[in-house]
Amino acid sequence: MGRISHLLLALSCIAYLSSCNEMILSKQVKEFMDKTIVMPDSLLVVKGGDIAMKESNKLTHPTLIVYIDENSCTSCKISHLIDYTPLFETAKENQKFDVMIIFSPKEDDYNKVKKELILRGLEYPVYLDRNGQFIKLNENAIPKDSRFNAFLMDTDGRPIYVGNPTQSGKLWEIFLQTLEDIK
Prior knowledge:
Blueprint: H1 3-33, E1 44-47, E2 50-53, E3 63-68, H2 74-79, H3 85-94, E4 98-103, H4 110-120, E5 126-128, H5 133-137, E6 150-153, E7 159-162, H6 169-182
Parallel strand pairs: 3-4, 4-5
Antiparallel strand pairs: 1-2, 1-5, 3-6, 6-7
């Protein structure tokens, strides 16, 4: 086999594997969108340096969940919370959706994360899940793939969009279109 034949074979294999991965992801998204996400009762809310218990787990608007699990670098994620400002501003302007950024740090890091969030004095709420209740309640609903750590769900807890709209212009456009389709 010549070099060109090897190259074509390699490219064919890559295209095939990419196609298989897309099919698997598509199937995961479809299965995920058939699930219902349950919100825990025991979340703390940190906003503007203040801390309080979340009042209700009932959703009044479609809600974009950004879940930061215990395996994430929480300090890194906290330092990038500013990236979500346009999202919170959009939510405030159009009042069609809410945003919930949920941190679920390791037990050993919980107080450090809480202190860091309080010191930041963010003007929008960030939620703390001390015991990992969010993921425990949704263990069989949310895939382990980190691409599912951000999703928009309707008021009944059904996912209607998957992805973090702050990650790319294309995801932002799809997110905004999804909001338009909700009407």
